[in-house]
Amino acid sequence: DGVIRFEDVHFSYDAARPILKGISFEVPAGKTVAIVGPSGAGKSTISRLLYRFYDIDRGRISIDGQDIREVTQASLRGKIGMVPQDTVLFNDTVGYNIRYGRIGASDEEVARAAEMAQIGPFIEKLPEGLNTMVGERGLKLSGGEKQRVAIARTILKAPPILILDEATSALDTATEQEIQASLDYVSKGRTTLVIAHRLSTVINADEIIVLRDGVIKERGRHDALLAQ
Ligand code: ADP
Ligand code: ADP
C-alpha cells in the first residue's frame, strides 16, 4: 500500500519559468526514495505537488494507481505524513500540536509519540512567540524543537506515506542522530520520500534521485552514485 508514481510531471509556479520538466519515478510500497540536488532544483516542489498544494501542468501523479486529482484532499492528506522544513505550529500547547496528527488519540499515545521524538518534557508548554499570552508555560521553541513536534505528530498519525523534507536539517549533530533513529522507526514499512541536500544523509535509501534544474540527472543506490 502507498505506491507513489510520478509520470512525466511538468510544473511551473509561473508559466514563464518551468520548474519541473518531465519528472518520472516510482516509490514502491514500503520503500524509501531520496531526492537530492542543489538548492533551487525543485526538490521541495515535488513534495508540495504530492501533497497537492499545487496542481501539475502536465503528466500524472498517482498513489496506488489512483490519480491524486481524483481523491478528496482530506483523503489524500490523511494518507500522507509530512515533516516539512519549517514547521508552523498552532497557537496551542505542544501536546495539542502533536495530537493534531490524530485527533482521537489518547493522552498516553500523545505522550509516547512526544517521548519518541524527544519533545516529552515540553508537552504542556505553549510555544512562545505564537502567543500574546506570556505565562509560566510559555516557551520559545527552536527550529529543531518545532521539527520534533512535527515528527511526534507524524509518529502519532502513522500514515502509509511519509514525506521528510530535510527533516533533520535544523538539528545539531547529536540531536540529529537521535531524531534520525525515531525517523527510521516511523519510516519502517512506510512508503517514504526524503528530500535532502546531501547524499551523506540518505545512505540507506532504496533509490536516490539526483535532480538538477528540474530534470533527473542520475539515479541509483548510494554506493553506485558515489562510484561514478
Ligand atoms: P529545492 O527544494 O530543490 O531547493 P524548490 O522546489 O523549493 O527547490 O524550488 C525550485 C524553484 O522554484 C526555485 O527556483 C524557487 O525559487 C522556485 N519557487 C519555489 N516556490 C515558489 C513559489 N511559491 N512561487 C514561485 N517560485 C517558487
Ligand atoms: P489531516 O487532518 O487529514 O491529516 P490536514 O491537511 O488537516 O489533513 O493536515 C495534514 C497534516 O499537515 C497534519 O498532520 C499536519 O502535520 C500538517 N498541517 C496541516 N495544517 C497545518 C497547520 N496549519 N500547521 C501545521 N501543520 C499543519
From TrEMBL:
Domain ABC transporter positions: 4-228
Subcellular location(s) per record: Membrane
Family in the record: Belongs to the ABC transporter superfamily.
The protein, known as: ABC transporter ATP-binding protein/permease
Residue numbers of the full-length protein present here: 359 to 586 of 649
